Prior knowledge:
Blueprint: H1 3-55, H2 58-76, H3 82-104, H4 110-125, H5 127-149, H6 157-164, H7 170-242, H8 248-262, E1 267-273, E2 279-287, E3 299-301, H9 306-313, E4 317-320, E5 338-345, E6 350-358, H10 366-417, E7 422-426, E8 429-433, E9 448-455, E10 458-466, H11 476-519, H12 525-540
Antiparallel strand pairs: 1-2, 1-6, 2-3, 4-5, 5-6, 7-8, 9-10
Helix pairs in contact: 1-2, 1-7, 2-3, 3-4, 3-5, 4-5, 4-7, 7-8, 7-10, 8-10, 11-12
Amino acid sequence: MNLSNLRNLFLGEQSIRQKDSLQNWRERIFTIIINISTAAGVIAYTINAISLSKQQAWLLLAIVSIIYLWILVIALIRRIPYTIRVGSYIILLYVLGISTGLSKAAVGDSRIWLISSSILAAIFLGGKSGLAMAGINFASWLAMGLLFQLNIIDYPHAHILNMVRPGNYSLWLNTGLTAFIACAATSISIATVLNNLDTSLQESRSLADELEKTASQLQKQTTVLEHRSQTLETSVQINHAVSTILDAEQILYQTAKLAKEKLDLLHVGILLANKSGTEVSLRASYGGGGHTIPAPGYRIPLGDGLINWVITNSQPRAIAEHEDASSLLQMKLSDARSYAVLPLRTREKILGVIVMQSQEPQNFDSNTLTTLQIMTDHIATQLDNAQLFAERENALEAERRAYRESSQSDWKNFMRAQTRAGYRRDQYGITTVKSTSKTRQKNTPTTFQSIPIQVRGQIIGYVDAQKSSAAEAWSSTEKDLLETLAGRLAATLDTARLYEETQQRAAEEQLIGEVTTRMRETLDIEVILKTAAQELRSVLDLAEVEVRMGTESIKNNP
């Protein structure tokens, strides 16, 4: 989620909370006003009821009574919906203002009630409702004035004269009390709104500060995650690049090169430990800085320094510019601001370390170090596999060499035991060749081909092919075919020789088994010695065999 979405999310929730809070304020203010109206209404109702009774204004008294009873209902019964309670209260004020205006004209409390209804409508129902109520009150006031001016309704002359009569203070008291109630309700409403508005502004500022702080933290976390993601992606790319390399030197070089370039480092060096674990040697180096890096082969003895700590504890470690990096010796660059040493560890041993130097301070945090160590472990495994592959290849090559030498010796012995060197097929038929030397034809070289028969690099014979003198010279296709057939012949001959040797070895094993079985038929020493002499002479077709017991041997007959 980006910063704009987060801000919209917070603002959206804030708007919802503000709406809920505003409604709560309105309900709380209305509860206060309706309670005050109920309490003050007792006094006002009593005074007005007495006054209206003396004036015999029974209709107005009935209206005032109904209004006060409804005020009691909406004050005591909270389950009535808020809109109905507020709307009916404002309508009662409006009705009270109209009725007062019709009975007392412009000298009564009509204007106070009408103004109060407009103000409270704006507070409890919103600005549009307040403006609408103000328009209705204005139109109603003009309509009442027109009715009085056209003499449709008579002016209350007695009430007007009573108002200006000296010593009549009750009318002033009634009007003052009405004005006080209206002003008190308006003041309480406005004060509550302002207090709540100030609280809301403080909450908004606090929320804005919190949002800014959260956004700053998220920005830092985003930067860290981007750096971690980039490091992880680079590690995967480096691991993929070296995963197909089987040469250890190439793995070291490519790792140093790719790590320096893709991680934007100042220098990367790879050091491998010797078998005794007393020193490490620089095997790959890529990058540069304040001064020249020592060439590969540079040796660093292991003591109590950083490299020794990493190898001993098998854990990566990062240090800043001001920390001790003395064990890096000449590998420490003057432009470097942070360093990381990671062990090349496999399941069995530590092969060495990778030393990384960066121009950025604090470039190797704990998360980055963990990601780089995963890459280093993979490099160590690949390097170990390459070393095992090289050892296996050397062992296989030694076996091939030994087998080749054994095969050459076996072929020499085999050919030495053969009475026939080969066969010749010509127009006269097939004949044997007793000489092992090549038979050269004295015809033109273009009609003669001699193809060697080779088994594992050893020539064991030749295929000599001769065309007639009238025939065309050998074509390249014919030569290739002849070489292919010679190769197949070599493989077949080698297989046949191995088969003969196997058969001969099997026969010898069988013979040895039979002789051994006969000698084991008895436990009598005399019989065993006699049987051994008989069987050895018979099996080996010897002239004489002597089997005897004792520690002295006899010399061979001259």
